[in-house]
Each structure stands twice: as C-alpha cells, then as structure tokens.
TrEMBL record:
Coarse class of the protein's main subcellular location: cytoplasm
Entry GO CC: cytoplasm
Pfam families for this protein: adh_short
UniProt subcellular location: Cytoplasm
UniProtKB keywords: Cytoplasm, NADP, Oxidoreductase
Full protein name: Benzil reductase
Molecular function GO terms recorded: sepiapterin reductase (NADP+) activity
InterPro entries for this protein: Biopterin_syn/organic_redct (IPR051721), NAD(P)-bd_dom_sf (IPR036291), SDR_fam (IPR002347)
GO biological process, one term: tetrahydrobiopterin biosynthetic process
Species name: Adhaeribacter aerolatus
C-alpha cells in the first residue's frame, strides 16, 4: 500500500487530491481537517483543528500510526488559511498567530513527527507542502499569509538539506499550486478594495474563467510530484507543468 497523510481534505485542492489518489487501488489516505466530506473504504478521517497546536501535539500518535509494509509514504501539508485581509496596523493581533499556526506550525509539527515515526521505513518518502506564489512576493493586505508561505518554503528547503546530508532519500517539496477555483479564492473576492489593491485582478480571474480547477491541479500534483521519481526543485510551481 501507498499511504498518504493529507491535511485539508474536506474541500478544495486537498479534497481533489485525495479523490485522485484514491483512484489507484493501492492507496490509503488519512485525511486531516475539521470537517469530513469524503467516504471511501480506503479513506480514514481524523478530525483536527490545526489552529489548536496543543491538541495536535497531544494526539500525533493517532495520526502517524504503524504502517504495514508500506510501498510509499507521503505527507501533504495542504490545509491553509489566508486569514483576515487588511493592512498591518488595522488587523486583530491574534490573526498572525492563527495564520502561522495553521500554515507553518502545524506543518512543522507534522513533518517532524512524520520523519521520526517512519524513520525505519525504507520505502520512498515524500513531504509535499502546499505553498503559494504569495510567499515569494508581497501582496498588500495578505501580510500574515505571505510571511507564512515564505516560512513554509524555508522550512522545506532546510528539511531537504538535512535529509540530503543524512542520505535518507526523503524528498521535500514546497509547491505553489497556481490560482485555483476554491473557497479561498471566494474569500479573496470578498475583500474591500482599500484592504487589497489587486482585488479587481482576482475578480477578473474568476469572471474570465482563468482559475485552475482543483481536479486538474490535483492530477498534476500527483503525476509530477508523487508518482514520478524524477528530481524536482524543492521550491516548485505547478504552472511549470501546464
Ligand atoms: N486556491 C488558490 O488559489 C491557492 C493559491 C495558492 C496556494 N493555495 C494553497 O493551497 C492550499 C489549499 O487551499 P484551497 O484553495 O484548497 O483552500 P480551501 O478550499 O479553503 O480549503 C482549505 C482546507 O484547509 C482546511 N483547514 C482550514 N482551516 C483548518 C483548520 N483550522 N484545521 C484543519 N484544517 C483546516 C479546510 O478544512 P476544514 O474547514 O474542514 O477544517 C479545507 O479542507 C492552502 O495551503 C492554500 O494556501 C491556494
């Protein structure tokens, strides 16, 4: 069996990725999010709120269970939030903690425990962090999100360097999925123009049908970053595979 641990499986990219992975008979998916919207004989849902990092730390043994003769083990840190859209100076201070807990601290805890729990398993292991172009350039109104995705990129680069030095063969990616038609994009379009100067551009993406479909992004992620053994840069963008 190939075992996948995917966060944010209740909707959007994470749900599409889970459904795509389950199309192969030899996959088993552990999904992690607050809500469950999937039912499948090879899917097990774990209800977690990733903003509650104490509960996450106390329950890691329920996620990374012993696996029987795995052929491949994959961790996908996909769950993410944009947080409140607004300029620094006008935001509630707890917004920063909330966004970082879900986008950085949760993924870091999961990466740390994944690597220690399956250290002895000699099969291919992949850590795929879903990042964003927003981690590479500033977007006004998105400060916590941009900073959190930049942190996720560096977490991934450091982790890959360590795994290379250890000679484990573990592959780590921080992948920008492009602009995808999900609830996160709907949330962006609800922003006020004085909180986000590029609002119209994002409204146009939707109106002109320029958003990627979650299903096609999921297929590309699976094909190019999970099924193919070829080496790719740690910091990658799905746009390079269209
Ligand atoms: N859509 C885009 O254009 C785009 C662009 C660049 C990067 N991304 C990245 O892609 C990833 C997926 O985004 P998406 O567009 O698919 O978003 P989405 O449709 O809003 O889905 C987000 C997922 O994250 C989960 N999640 C949110 N808060 C959570 C929490 N507190 N605890 C546990 N799970 C939580 C949600 O599950 P529950 O609500 O059930 O908990 C949901 O399954 C994110 O990391 C995002 O930053 C998206």
């Amino acid at each position: 069996m190939e075992y996948y641990f995917i966060t944010g499986t209740s909707k959007g990219i994470g749900k599409a990725l889970t459904e795509a992975a389950l199309q192969k008979d030899n996959t088993y998916v552990y999904g992690i999010s607050r809500n469950c919207s999937l039912k499948h004989e090879r899917y097990h849902h774990l209800h977690f709120d990733l903003s509650d990092t104490t509960a996450l730390r106390n329950n890691l043994h329920k996620i990374f269970v012993p696996l029987k003769e795995p052929e491949k083990i994959v961790l996908v840190n996909n769950a993410g939030v944009l947080g409140e859209i607004g300029y620094i100076g006008s935001l509630p201070s707890d917004n920063f903690e909330f966004v970082f807990d879900i986008n950085v601290i949760g993924p870091a805890i999961l990466m740390n425990t994944f690597l220690s729990a399956y250290y002895d398993q000699k099969c291919p292991k992949i850590i795929l962090n879903i990042s964003s172009g927003a981690g590479k350039k500033p977007l006004d109104g998105w400060s916590a999100y941009c900073a959190s995705k930049a942190a996720l990129d560096m977490l991934s680069l450091t982790c890959q360097k360590e795994q290379d030095l250890l000679g484990t063969g573990v592959k780590v990616y921080s992948l920008a999925p492009g602009v995808v038609d999900t609830a996160m994009q709907a949330h962006i379009r609800e922003a006020e123009i004085d909180s986000f100067s590029e609002l119209q551009k994002f409204k146009d993406y939707k109106e002109k049908g320029e958003l990627y479909k979650p299903e096609e992004v999921a297929r590309k992620i699976l094909t190019h970053f999970i099924q193919e053994a070829a080496q790719k840069p740690v910091i990658s963008s799905i746009r390079d595979y269209y």
